[in-house]
Amino acid sequence: MEGPVNMSTFEEREAAFEAKFAADEQKMFVARMRRNRFMAVWASAKKGETVEQARAFGRELIKKDLQEVGDDDVIEAVMSYLGDLTSEDVVRRKLDEMMAEAKYQMVQED
């Protein structure tokens, strides 16, 4: 028969879980910001713009993403930026590709 649950063990596990959750959330935040910069470079290249213009648009995308939860605001911003140079389906696929690349790069850096 098992004895009573040791509360300090439970609290240690809870603290470890919370720390892992916070670290995972931080990694996801960094990946999203990196993804947004990649999207800005891609969009600016489609328009034939300079690196500085890509950086400026990247800052705009990051700001947009911080204002609202989800990807719709980023997709809307890219669509507005590119106008008839692309479609929403292409932007959504590119967003997924760029997120995968951002995560891959982060894993390689660890």
Characterize the structure shown.
The model has no long low-confidence stretch (mean pLDDT 90). The protein has helices at 7-47, 51-67, 72-82, 88-109. Helix 2 runs antiparallel to helix 3 (72-82). The N and C termini lie far apart (44 Å). It is an all-alpha fold. The chain has a domain at 40-109.
Which spans of ≥5 residues are poorly predicted at pLDDT below 50?
none
Give the integer mean of the pLDDT values. Answer: 90
Cα-atom Rg, whole angstroms?
Answer: 20 Å
Topology as H/E string? HHHH
Question: Which outline best applies?
Answer: elongated
How far is the first residue's CA from the last residue's CA? 44 Å
Query: Helical stretch count?
Result: 4
Helix content: over 70%
> How large is the share of residues in beta strands?
under 5%
Number of strands: 0
State the secondary-structure class: mainly alpha
Biggest sheet: strands, sense, closure?
none
Oligomer: single chain
Sum up the structure in keywords.
110 residues, mainly alpha, 4 helices, 0% strand, elongated, ATPase_inh_sub_z_sf, DUF1476 domain-containing protein, ATPase_inh_sub_z
Summary?
The chain has helices at residues 7-47, 51-67, 72-82, 88-109.
